[in-house]
Amino acid sequence: MLTFWQDVVIVILILLCSVLFKMVIDRLWTREHRRTHNDLIGWQLSILGTTYAVIVGFMLYAVWNNFGLAEVNADTEANSLVNVYRLADGLPATQRDELKQAAREYANVVVDKDWPVMAQGYTGKLPSRDVDQKMWQILMTVKAASGTELTAEDHALYELSSVAEHRRLRQLQSVSRLPGVLWFVLIVGGALSIMSSCMFGSESSWLHSLQVFAFSLLVALALIAIADIDRPYQGSVHVADTPFRRAQGNMQ
Question: SS3 breakdown of the chain: % helix, strand, coil, rounded to 5?
C-alpha cells in the first residue's frame, strides 16, 4: 500500500537514478564515441520502447478494468442491501423490524469496519459477515401467511444472496494483486528502456538529459499508476465507500 507521498518519493528516486546513470555513462563512454553507434542504439531503443509500451498499456488496461469492476461490485452490493431493507416491509412485523435493523447495522459495519481493514490489506473474515449471517437467520424464521409475505420473503432471499455474493467478491478484490513475475517484467523492462535511452549519443548534452528525464518520468508515473490501481481498496487511489453511505441515508 503506497501513500501519495510515497508515490512522490519513488518517482523522484527513479528520476535521480536515471540522471545519475546518464552522468556515469557520459563520463565512462563519451558522447562522441557513442554517436558512432547511434544506429544500433536507436534500433535497440525502438524495439525495447515499443515492446515495453505495449506491456505497460496492457497492464494499465488490466488493472483499471479490475478497479472499475470493484467499484461496480461495491455499488451492486449496496443496492442489494437497500432492496433487502425495502422488501422487509412485506414481512411479518417481528421479522420486518429485525431485518431492517440488521440491514442498517450491515451498512454501518461495512463503512466503519470493513473499509478500514481492507485498506490495511486484511485477508481474514470481514466483520460484515456476522451481520450477513444474522439477516439469513431472520429470514429463515419467517412464516409467510399471505401471498404478499411469501413474495416479499422470496425476493428478500434473492437480494440477500446477492449481498453475500458481492461481499465475497469484494473481499477477493481487496487482496488480489498482479503476479510477481509481471512486476519483474515491468521493472526490468523499464530499467532497460531507460538505460538504452541514456546510451544514445547526442550532440546536445542538455537536450539529451531533458529527453532522458521526460522518458524516466513517464515510466515512473506509469509504474506508480499500475501499483496504486492494482489495489482497489488500498493506497491513495481506492474504491470509496460512497455506495454504502448512500445506503445508510436511504435506510434512515
Answer: 80, 0, 20
Reported as a single tens digit per residue, the pLDDT across 201-223 is 676 777 878 888 998 999 999 99
- Total domains present in the chain: 1
The H or E element containing residue 49 is helix 38-87
Other C-beta atoms lying within 10 Å of the C-beta of residue 199: 17
- 27, exposed or middle or buried, with CB in 10 Å at 0-12, 13-18, 19+? exposed
11 C-beta neighbours (distance < 10 Å), count: 17
- Provide DSSP, 152-221: HHHHHHHHHHHHHHHHHHHHHHHH----HHHHHHHHHHHHHHHHHHHT---S-HHHHHHHHHHHHHHHHH
Give start and end residues of each alpha helix (H) in 29-37. Answer: 31-35
| Structural domain boundaries enclosing 42 | 4-250
Which residue, 136, 155, 161, 146, is CA-closest to 92? 146
pLDDT exceeds cutoff 90 at 84: yes
- Mean pLDDT for 45-72 is 91
